[in-house]
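Q: Hi! First time doing this. I have a protein sequence and I read that you can turn it into a structure. Is that right? Here it is:
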Amino acid sequence: MNRTTKHVVNALEKLFNFFASIQLAIIVLSGLAIICAVGTIVEARYDSNYAQKMVYQSPYMYLIMALLCVNLLNVMIDRLPWKARHTGFVLAHIGIIVIVVGALITKKYGIDGSMALNIDEKSRSISLSENELAIYTSLGEGTYKHMYSSTQDFLLSSPRNNPISVTLDRNNFKVTDYYHYSLREQKIIESQNPYDGPAVRLQLQNANINITEWLSRAVTAPYETFDLGPARIVLAEEKAKVQNTDGNVIVLRPDKKDKIRYEIYTKSKSGLTKSGLLPLAEAIDTGWMDIKLRLLKYLPRAENKIKFTEKTRPTGMTSPAIKIEFNDKAHWVGLNSPLQLYTDVASYVVAYRNRLLDLGFDMSLKQFTVGRYQGTNRAMSYESIVNVSGLGERHISMNEPLKYRGYTFYQASFQENDQGEATTSILSVNKDPGRPVKYFGFFFVVLGTIFMFYFKRFRAKLEKVNKISEGQS
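A: Yes, that's right. Below is the predicted 3D structure, encoded as structure tokens:
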């Protein structure tokens, strides 16, 4: 062996000894402790999603886990040839590596989302934590065609440094800025743009309530609805047909002379009970619980001016938002709030939203029940009766998930209306292809632990018996 080869062999031997050393194990364990501590602090200051992306799924975590697997593998190789007493040691080390591999499979191919279902509502898709940018164009008569979509993580790749540009029908859409935490402010202002629709500011008032709201309608939409729970207000085109007027409904119709006509439908009387011209500021009796309706302001053309203010930390009101430049004009759009844009020949809808995943089967909510602690409104338990295509009716509760086609549906939470009635069941949906691998790894770790501790004692007792037998003989 020449001198160069000897140096290379010595260097490789030192490298192998380092990767199999207790020093590397200490470095790995210290690194894991530091990352977990930092992740806990970040999650407390921001939120779990932010901590996942910036800490727990960071390159530093992947590096530490890779060093852990290398250290475990080299330690096992260093003990070759293995003997019977190494059984527990080898099984435990293999189990830890298998668990890490299972976690990687889950990260790569797993699904973690949610599904919100209203009573008698049907759905076949779940909302994921990943975000996507989608663009649709109008085909006329209120229908839209999907033109573009792509999954985007603007937190890890900010458009401030890497703008995203999309060109459709010679129109350019460019994402140039991103706020991870932002507060949305909305203001209705008068507009001269023919692509803007009407807006009204209304007041509903009686001895117990006083509600003042703006309601605007896009020029391409036949009507827009504002839901108050026991009643609805609809801003419609002059001759548009409004669906579902069998409850308590107020329909407002601007005419060609910029006057507002109203129609009041009453549930208890099964239809239209009052109609006429709605003068500015004059109170109209709706016939429901002494509620009076007032028109405070009417704008034949109104722009929905939306402003987002960046915040450094989350609150209950913050959400992500992106800045889009469309044909050299800037617009802001928040997460899950579609933006409508117009040209002389077409209209577009830009959606920045949670990515939707088609399950491949339908699910509808037939019944939702909330159990409450006695004498309070606090929820003690809640459960859903769902109808699944190809499976039939099934029960989902807090302690009884539904498993179907690789998905597991957990009862996560619910939403209530203003009257405290549960209206929406929220299910957490999980698909974890790495779970069997992780279970297999845990089995190896437990089995190895049993061999290392219990069989070690058994061997010690056996050796003691052997020595006593040898002494007596």
